[in-house]
UniProtKB/TrEMBL annotation:
Amino acids binding substrate: K71, N116, R117, M118, G119, F120, N178, N183, N241, T242
GO biological process, one term: 'de novo' pyrimidine nucleobase biosynthetic process
Subunit and partners: Monomer.
PANTHER family hit by this protein: DIHYDROOROTATE DEHYDROGENASE (QUINONE), MITOCHONDRIAL (PTHR48109:SF4), DIHYDROOROTATE DEHYDROGENASE (QUINONE), MITOCHONDRIAL-RELATED (PTHR48109)
Coiled-coil regions, chain positions: none
UniProt domain Dihydroorotate dehydrogenase catalytic: residue ranges: 52-327
Predominant cellular place of this UniProt entry's protein: membrane
Organism per entry: Actinoplanes nipponensis
Name this polypeptide is given: Dihydroorotate dehydrogenase (quinone)
Amino acid sequence: MSLFTSAVRPVLFRLGGGDAEKAHEFTLERLASLGARPRALLRSRYAVPAPVEAFGVRFPNPVGLAAGMDKNGVALPAWPALGFGFVEVGTVTAKPQPGNDQPRLFRLRDSEAVINRMGFNNAGAAALAARLAELGPLGVPLGISLGKSKVTPLEEAVEDYLTSYRLLHPYADYIAVNVSSPNTPGLRTLQDRSALAALLGALVGGKPVLVKIAPDLTEPAIAELLEVCLAAGAAGVIATNTTLARDGLAAADQPRAAEAGGLSGRPLTERARKIVHFVHEETGGRLPIIGVGGILDADDAARMFDAGAALVQLYTGFIYRGPALVRAAAKAYATAGEKARP
Ligand SMILES: Cc1cc2nc3c(=O)[nH]c(=O)nc-3n(C[C@H](O)[C@H](O)[C@H](O)COP(=O)(O)O)c2cc1C
């Protein structure tokens, strides 16, 4: 048992009477307030060098922070100190928006899972651009995840994403196009052939653009999406977002299963890995993949790399296992590399 699971996590999980969003806000505030010295101490404990290159970008290690944890980039310098080899901020939208009503974030503890229906609560693309301008370089690659503003009709989605892209691309090492959140009505229809082709046609050309996909797509739908990605020159795929399925929940968590939103964590592990494998096979490795979904230990990370992921990201695993998971996942990659070399 790590210090995190024995001492830190119980405190965080009790905050605000067990309100998961309170714990999230508290953690972000604390991380944002860390000075340079504690960050250096943390870095010496958690940062594992395991360099890798993907879509033309060099990463100090292949374990990233998934989108949604630090939507507005308030705690950016803390993430590399906790060992992350890259950070994806956002999802941000062209217009600031409050997201859905609270409560909108739920822990399913026995299942090591989370259900969220945050709905892209964020301060908007311009605020993030200002924050990034002030902050300067992060020291690790930065991905910026873009979504559609809720008030923007689907027919005007391309212009909405473009507005965010124009404001933010100077700060990004890659852009993630989020067309797979289940919490913005209609968003997932942007994964369809013609809508995605139009969106990628507008966004591809500058910084590497990766498409984040839903785990609820069928294989034929993914195959079609991959064709569009390849034809449009997308740099890669991020697989996967949260699922609308409710399989694999522990009995104690069944009452929570009825909450609307996307499910993440352990119940998603196998589905996400299968999709990564499918994408890898279907493209013959031509589209680099960021594997995300249900990585809770070093073995999950290793298997995600084996399935074809060039990089991985953590969200729910970080909630349940803390920064030791970042280190363990990076070590899993480094060790596999050593074994592969003669
Ligand atoms: C509370 C919460 C908020 C999220 N917000 C976003 C988001 O804004 N954009 C996005 O692309 N994914 C978002 N995600 C999805 C994660 O980035 C990730 O794809 C998903 O949770 C699966 O990984 P995990 O099982 O490690 O959590 C969110 C997930 C959670 C739990």
